[in-house]
């Protein structure tokens, strides 16, 4: 039944796209959980505009913020079924199709954007992209959409894993995220991003973890009191479409879409980097206490996650690429 619904959704999206974009030969509906205020959104707008310009309007990119097209996992299934949709998604959610992608969301892999960018533009990563295309029917347009380092969002001060004992913390449902949060001392609670505000407000969960732009964009400063800067996950994400949609493009248009996705990812990522200090100031102004701590205890607590999920050898390889 789930497969039937996915195929039906794909058909509906295809029909809608053909009706709404008669002037364009190809349309791609891009879903993101982020709001238009997020710095990353500027990159999506640049992607939309430059693709339209370089293809003379033959390819139209349409952007849907705040998960208007559904949860990331659902949109990925729609893309696999042939719908003209794409989603800004993390490696953890792709790991169910291609295990190696999960390592990108493993704890304390790299700091900042420049190092992780080297990983997602490497020859090794290109091999993963090809395998994902061939085996899962998904096409990475680019994977250099950096959203920042993720921190702990709580209603009490946190300095060590012991402070998170019994704390129900929202996290995406991917194994690498779940095990990281569990290793940090909290009880991982999978939940869609758009549900987090009300869940914190109503006490369904006690805490969350996120990067500064998403925290401010979702107004979580209204329902939490403390941010502990652990930087436990360096959130690099990708713009992922269906392989069938991508392969339907003529070769010249495929090249344009991929090139502009990479350029737009840099616009989004460096824009995010430049905005972090002002966002942090705004969060503080809104009454949130932001604490800098020694993260050694969290690094030590999460170190076993790599071997637990089979990423031990890959960790060293990826850290080596990031450090080049």
Structure description:
With 324 residues, the protein is α/β, with parallel strands linked by helices. It contains 14 helices and 9 strands. The strands form 2 sheets. Strands 1, 2, 3, 4, 7, 8 and 9 form a 7-stranded mixed sheet that branches. A two-stranded parallel ribbon has the order 5-6.
Shape: globular
**Low-confidence region ranges:** 1-10, 12-22
The helix fraction, in percent, is: 40-55%
Strand content: 15-25%
Radius of gyration: 19 Å
Count, helices: 14
**Per CATH, which architecture of the largest domain?**
3-Layer(aba) Sandwich
Largest sheet: 7 strands, mixed
The CATH topology of the largest domain, please? D-Maltodextrin-Binding Protein, domain 2
Structural class designation: alpha/beta
Number of domains: 2
What's the level 1 CATH class of the largest domain? Alpha Beta
Q: What value does the average pLDDT take?
A: 93
Order of helices and strands: HEHEHEHHHEEHEHEHEHHEHHH
CATH homologous superfamily assignment of the largest domain: Bacterial extracellular solute-binding protein, family 7
